[in-house]
Amino acid sequence: MTDSDRNTPFPPRPTATRPLLGMTILAVEDSRYACDALRLMALRSGARIRRADCLQAARRHLSLYRPTVAVIDLGLPDGSGAGLIAELVARSPRLPVILGISGDPFAENMLRAAGADGFLEKPLRSLLEFQNAIIAALPDSRKPGGIRLVSDDPIHPDPLAYQDDIAHAAALLQEAGEPGLSDYLAQFLAGLARSAGDNALERAARALAAARAERRPTAQALTQLSALLHQRLATRMAI
User: Fold this and answer.
1) What pLDDT, in 10s, does the model give residues 31-57?
2) Which of 8, 31, 44, 178 is the most buried (most CB within 10 A)?
3) pTM
4) 3-state secondary structure of 192
5) Cα–Cα distance for residue pair 80/236, rounded to 1 Å
6) What is d(CA 76, CA 102) in angstroms, rounded to the nearest whole number?
7) Domains and CATH numbers, the chain
8) Is 13 exposed, middle or buried, given 0-12, 13-18 or 19+ CB atoms closer than 10 A?
9) Helix, strand or coil for residue 232?
10) At a CB cut-off of 8 Å and minimum separation 6, what does 101 contact?
11) 11 — alpha (psi -120 to 50), left (phi > 0) or beta?
12) Sign, CA torsion 21/27/32/34
């Protein structure tokens, strides 16, 4: 295994405008829209980024290289990100920074209990908060020194990434009779819609989550979700 941020004899040094220069971030994130926000923040900060969209892909990445930072979503299609965080905390040598991320602010306690060094809440909007979360968790020997010059302009992920997530959810909806898949779909869409400011879709996703939690029939909630997803896909086709 190689440490991907130390694989050159003279790695680049952080600068005032690019404080994460020379670092590599592994984003374990199933949403292409959320990952695009992370990508933009990483690029503005000087870091390289790779993406794994599930636990299996993340473990495959981590068997081959060692990033500086792992940003791990709580809800993933093949399990909980909290379990992966606990695995990485127990590894030796430990990754310099392990952050949890979720659209549910109540997830922070769970992710920190698993061993996360910090927490990022979706939607990701602030470059300063992103950089601060990483730098605060770095060992003192690796913290960038000097003054940081941060342009905290809003981050705007690619709308096509949102549409890709919508298409993915619509495909999953065809199999939503499986209880575990309905739970995953509800949390995925609630987080995605919250990040994109799609209030109607977020309400529909939370209605499905509530029906599942209260053991009520989900047919109506699934029908409503299906209609909203197809409306958004129709908009994409019109564009």
Assistant:
1) 999 999 999 999 999 999 999 999 999
2) 31
3) 0.90
4) helix
5) 31
6) 10
7) 2-142 (3.40.50.2300), 159-238 (no CATH)
8) exposed
9) helix
10) 29, 34, 71, 72, 73, 74, 119, 120, 121, 122, 124
11) beta
12) negative
